[in-house]
Amino acid sequence: MNPAYRIHEYSTQIFKQIIAEADSVSEAYIDSKSHTFYFQEYFRVLRASTIIVEYDYIDHDFLEDFSFYYVKCFKRYSRKCARLHFFDISFSKEEFDGFLNGGNSNLKEEILQKAYLGFIVLKPLPKTIIGRTCIKTYPSDKDRRQFPPLREYEANLFGIKLTVNSLAYQEQDNVVAACATSSLWSVFNSTGRLFQHKILSPVEISEAACSSLPLESRFFPNPGLSSAQMAQAIRAIGLEPYLIKVEDQELLKAATYAYLKCKIPMLFGFLLMDKSGKEPMPLGLHAVAITGFSLGEPAPIPYGRTGFLSIASRIDKVYSHDDQVGPFSRMVLNYDTIKMDNGNAVKTILSSWGGSDRKLDRIRAIPTILLIPVYNKIRITFQTIQETITHFDRIIETFRLNKVLPFKERLVWDIYLTTVNEVKSGMLSSKKWRNKLRLQVLMQSMPRFIWRATAFCKGQYVIDLLFDATDLEQSPLLFNAVGYDEDFFETLIDLSRQDDLPAVLKDPMFLRILEWFSNQKI
Fold first, then answer.
1. What angle do CA 488, 490, 493 make, to 5 degrees?
2. pLDDT at position 499, please?
3. Residue 426: strand pairing partners
4. How many CB atoms neighbour CB 49 within 10 A?
5. What phi, psi does 161 have (nearest 5°)?
6. Which of 112, 147, 166 is the last residue of a domain?
7. What gap in Å lies between CA 242 and CA 213, rounded to an integer?
8. Which of 319, 346, 375 is the last residue of a domain?
9. pTM exceeds 0.85 for this model
10. What is the pLDDT of residues 98-155, one digit of tens each?
């Protein structure tokens, strides 16, 4: 019989031994899992020093799967898990015991909380061992790395309240869940708090995905979900699936940035290719949950025929919950090209998978889709706003090149979905807002969800365009614009009142924005 807990000094070898002992598997098998290599590097970066192993732990999500499937097996699987807690300070069992029993100890609850790195639940199953995992993210590196969908998780350890900002992850379970189900589970852990819906367990996700679609195979064991089934699971919790084909990695960057800024994670589907041999070999389709991004490019990269510049183009990596690798695993964008069977050369993404030769630079991902779960009142899509701003920017750039506008450099755009509360809180706390503008925006009645497009020139604010994300597609959409550059703002008002506009300005997208300016006073 296990004690209530054990304390170990952290090392990779100890970590592997704990997993092997908890799940009665060989260390050789644990050593072969890609997760082992991933967590070794992850905990090195986080500077893990101590592990507390909590035995006889009941995990809600595993209990749901256990009661539906595993309890009916002839072999008796345990319903109890082990939970590993990680800290970045060193302490002994004697010190921890002393703290628990109220004796002399240097440990205090606030010290343990400050040092807490998170937890990993170990499921009592063969092979698929890593259960609910909530671990701190990589350091932000001066806001280069951003993980907007994080939420707070609480772990009560013998009465000690410990919290960690993370997004729940777990390894794929081939019986009740496949990669898409695991990714959806992670996504729902975030959207459940954001949009107030029930967070389904993996088995409930698989049931919802397959309940009203033609039977492609048996529900359990589950071999994987199609994009249609993933969309059905999203509808089952009251959200709407928005699908974007993202063969273009610049579109992948822009859409990922736009929705993650509103704390909405998403499903990312791609084809995996193994470059370990002489010729790339397809490994099949895979799905992950995108949970963050890195603004690693030093400057925006021109996009499209017009050379459009955006903050999103600075993304050089996305971070994903990949059930075959680990939480917040790195994916490097625009890594290299692969020549496909049809002769086309496509840009690839470097994944965190190991190839057949165990090296981490062998597996590439070729993007296919983004599937974004959005609240049903968010009717205006990112692509609509992106197209509108691209047309607007093209005409503004024509004016700039012809010296009509005084900007010395091209405008850079920051486009993302947000909420009225975020807009007003940001404006209230920002020092960049003049009193007149602050009052104007803070007092205005606004929709709950807003598309915000902010233009900058040489790092200085130029204008904010606010679009109603809940409106009808055929409406003007723009409901407010805040001008930081008064000359530019007045120029737009003048243009909006001209009866005979030059042909270059008669772009429907540009006129859509000018319609709002025509009702403004100078």
1. 115
2. 77
3. none
4. 17
5. -85, 115
6. 166
7. 18
8. 375
9. yes
10. 999 987 888 999 999 999 999 999 988 777 788 899 999 999 999 999 999 999 999 9
